[in-house]
Design brief:
4-stranded mixed β-sheet, single chain, 157 residues
Length: 157
Amino acid sequence: KFARWLDACGAILDQINSPSNGCRLVAELSTNDPRVQHAMQSVRVPRATSTQNAFSGIPMASMSSALRGLRIQSLVQEVDRIQNPSSTFLHPPRENGSAASFDWLRDGSRVECKCAQLSWSHTHNGWRVVFSGIKFARPGFRHTACFDDLLLAIYSP
């Protein structure tokens, strides 16, 4: 499992560092770095405080997670349109009467958007984000991923 995490991390960093997306890695710091430790201490949440309290009064906090996911997906798609102004965007075709396994087409590329909420983990004593339901290729199950581009969005206060 650890090797898969390293592969995933490498793939994410490759995407971030790609000259075509306008992003760049500003710094890489260990969680043991004193500056990171100081920053983490300043945002520690007492054990009695819940994720719900952290999101109190934040836009979309009162929505169901499904509705919030759809709204964030719409925002991500709009950002994708802004970043790719000359591209053609289409809704995916239905597959056997069911929704497609990706969220939209951009110039023929299948785009999948997944969002996850930042949440406090008492077990890990810190904030975490867990993305689920990503349809990667899996030997013996799915030969190819169900998307060409995967866009990840984090909902946080």
